[in-house]
Amino acid sequence: MPELVFFSGTMDCGKSTLALQIEHNRSARGLKGMIFTRDDRAGEGKLSSRLGLVTDATEAADDFDFYAHLVDHLSQGGRADYVIADEAQFLAPGQIDQLARVVDDLGLDVFAFGITTDFRSKLFPGSQRLVELADRVEVLQVEALCWCGARATHNARTIGGAMVVEGAQVVVGDVNHAADEVGYEVLCRRHHRRRMTSATAHAAALSPDVLPVASA
């Protein structure tokens, strides 16, 4: 049976690499996929991995209708055996509904990839709808690490190395960026709560944490 599968994880955990691997494996078996993305770091109409791999994709803008696009493609004699949607957290909930309809009405597997929560630890609307509708939610097993060495579970937005907690939900950036630019860093929950990035914590010289002691 066709499925809607949501592959989720923090930034820098290999989501786009897995999307490209799925595309490679299936195309090597003679299957034809349709690849979509939204606001990829490599630019419009690209699906890219931090490992340097990149492929062409269809950019899914705000008004893009996945179901109508697939129906039109198939009606004109085009072929599609599966669908890959990267950066799915940026999609609108209605677009996630369209992807579910592609599975149910067109009988195609849909593989969606995205981060679950934003820099404030709030669910992206697209990711929330995927959790609600997906046949399976797969958490990526390649663990990104916080600067302290613990498993990274949260995405932090930074400016000049300092964590910020206000601003628009969607600001395109990367974990590799100039010091004065908007960037992102993955942190464990403890250091996300404390707003301690690798720069502000001076990780190499950070002394062990101590328990808080109430003053007399």
From TrEMBL:
Binding site for ATP: 9-16, 86-89
EC main group: transferase
Stored InterPro entries: P-loop_NTPase, Thymidine_kinase
Record field: catalytic activity: thymidine + ATP = dTMP + ADP + H(+)
A GO molecular-function descriptor: kinase activity
EC annotation from Swiss-Prot or TrEMBL: 2.7.1.21
Phosphoprotein listed as a keyword: no
Domain of life: Bacteria
Keywords, sorted A to Z: ATP-binding, Cytoplasm, DNA synthesis, Kinase, Nucleotide-binding, Transferase
Catalytic residues of the enzyme: 87
Localisation per UniProt entry: Cytoplasm
Keyword Signal in annotation: no
Any matching Pfam family: TK
Summary of subunit composition and partner proteins: Homotetramer.
Family: Belongs to the thymidine kinase family.
Designated name of the protein: Thymidine kinase
